[in-house]
């Protein structure tokens, strides 16, 4: 990797080959899988009637846009034609502006899905009254509003161009270290912590419910052996975990 006179990184032929191969692999796996997810939910009347599935559709849609729009644009700029990033031109600004919204929507939707599953397991009697279609719709609208607002505000306040530190067209954080730390904390670290806490709580609740079911089953069937009990425990735990993810 070298630098040209306009401080734009130029990749060697070997580096370009590796990046193209990795990108092709990502596109090959991500595009069909997300399309299948969208078709599966949209073509199933029973799936469409379940409001929480709209969150999965929203996440699949944002991931599909990331693979079809953001990744190819960054690849074109930095591997095939680095002159497009020179002088922070329109193409570079457009690519930088599109880099953040889809990522934010995906992460925010993952948190919303975890919240939905949390209520489904921890408060099943209140789930339908809390996680209504309007509530799910408000979550989806919020993810896109938040992502759009974030991109527009930082694009005008800080600016979008070629970021030498990340070697990509993005928001130029170079002279705004404090802001970048705040953004990284609120949009990367905080969602990560929320996902860990919610999913760990979910697994703990499933294990507790599983133990109660196994104990009840053992009393009804008079199964004293630990092996059968363990088999039932693991089987029911896996079934419950799979149901929580669906």
Q: What would you say about this model in short?
A:
The protein is mainly alpha-helical. The protein is 78% helix and 5% strand.
Comma- or semicolon-separated keywords:
246 residues; mainly alpha; 2 domains; 4 strands; 5% strand; disordered N terminus
Q: Any idea what the radius of gyration is?
A: 23 Å
Helix percent reads over 70%
Give a quick account of the main beta sheet: strands, pairing sense, barrel closure. 2 strands, antiparallel
Average pLDDT reading: 80
Separation of the first and last Cα atoms: 44 Å
Question: From the 3D coordinates, which CATH architecture of the largest domain would you assign?
Answer: Up-down Bundle
Number of domains: 2
Largest sheet: spatial strand order: 1-2
Provide the CATH topology of the largest domain.
Rhopdopsin 7-helix transmembrane proteins
* Beta fraction: under 5%
Low-confidence region ranges: 1-7, 225-233
CATH class of the largest domain: Mainly Alpha
């Amino acid at each position: 990797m070298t630098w040209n006179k306009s401080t734009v990184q130029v990749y060697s032929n070997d580096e370009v080959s590796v990046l193209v191969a990795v990108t092709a692999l990502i596109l090959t796996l991500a595009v069909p899988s997300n399309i299948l997810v969208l078709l599966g939910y949209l073509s199933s009347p029973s799936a469409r009637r379940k409001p929480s599935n709209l969150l999965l559709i929203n996440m699949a849609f944002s991931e599909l846009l990331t693979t079809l729009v953001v990744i190819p644009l960054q690849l074109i700029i930095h591997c095939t034609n680095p002159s497009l990033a020179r002088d922070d031109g329109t193409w570079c600004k457009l690519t930088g502006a599109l880099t953040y919204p889809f990522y934010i929507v995906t992460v925010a939707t993952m948190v919303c899905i975890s919240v939905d599953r949390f209520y489904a397991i921890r408060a099943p009697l209140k789930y339908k009254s809390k996680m209504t279609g309007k509530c799910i719709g408000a979550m989806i609208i919020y993810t896109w509003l938040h992502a759009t607002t974030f991109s527009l505000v930082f694009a005008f306040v800080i600016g979008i161009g070629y970021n030498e530190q990340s070697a990509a067209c993005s928001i130029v954080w170079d002279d705004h270290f404090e802001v970048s730390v705040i953004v990284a904390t609120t949009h990367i670290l905080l969602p990560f912590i929320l996902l860990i806490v919610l999913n760990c709580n979910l697994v703990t609740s499933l294990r507790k419910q599983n133990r109660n079911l196994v104990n009840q089953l053992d009393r009804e069937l008079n199964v004293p052996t630990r092996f059968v009990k363990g088999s039932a425990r693991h089987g029911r735990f896996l079934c419950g975990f799979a149901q929580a993810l669906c």
